[in-house]
Amino acid sequence: xxxxxxxxxxxxxxxxxxxxxxxxxxxxxxxxxxxxxxxxxxxxxxxxxxxxxxxxxxxxxxxxxxxxxxxxxxxxxxxxxxxxxxxxxxxxxxxxxxxxxxxxxxxxxxxxxxxxxxxxxxxxxxxxxxxxxxxxxxxxxxxxxxxxxxxxxxxxxxxxxxxxxxxxxxxxxxxxxxxxxxxxxxxxxxxxxxxxxxxxxxxxxxxxxxxxxxxxxxxxxxxxxxxxxxxxxxxxxxxxxxxxxxxxxxxxxxxxxxxxxxxxxxxxxxxxxxxxxxxxxxxxxxxxxxxxxxxxxxxxxxxxxxxxxxxx
Length: 312
Description:
Blueprint: H1 31-53, H2 60-63, H3 68-100, H4 104-119, H5 122-130, E1 138-141, E2 145-148, H6 149-152, H7 155-181, H8 184-192, H9 197-227, H10 239-250, H11 253-282, H12 294-311
Antiparallel strand pairs: 1-2
Helix pairs in contact: 3-4, 3-7, 3-9, 3-10, 4-7, 5-7, 7-9, 8-9, 9-11, 10-11
């Protein structure tokens, strides 16, 4: 006797999946950008046209670019910038450590110095040093040196003291900010290992603080290079003084000022490149992998097609 067993009906075959239509991304049109670009290009064209139609002897700029007087002024500008920054950095570090001290006398002296030199314009300070001969006729350091103030305070020394002492006040605050940026646990750990306070600063705190100190210090160097043009007020022969003298003698005053601006731009560009690589050096411990430098990116772009062609 056979028993019929009903077999379950087979499910209908599933329809093949339909491919979704590709999404067509329509970029948003930024008409404001085009308008802004046209306005900027128009203003630049007007500026170029104004200088082109003006009575400017552009040929005098390359002619006097390497003039002996101009180069002498440039050397003096770079020299006073370097020396002023050395004074500013060394004295600024000392003032920052004094400001962090628990000694109320040294802390108060540091605060007063920073308050005074940051609160008065550097132009006024230059004139003050230059005219102190009206108050002090002689400088008398008993066993070492004695001379008339007018002979002692030369234009170079006046410019050096005016710029360097003023810069020390700003560098003190930069260094203090860098020291405070290091976690206090670093100091406690170093002291637990038996390190002295000076050794802790030199080996633990300062190397880590440099990552914070270097960028604003680089800006201060560039700013010092430009601020050095104020020393013309105390008759120090710098790049601006040289440009004015050459322009007055040759009758191309505006052209020589443009030439001075070009030399300042060249010098600040070189300093900016040095600051960039110095920042990378001290940023090694904060990032696992530093971004490539512009030269490395350019080298990779130039080597990319050659490598691809060789692999093919």
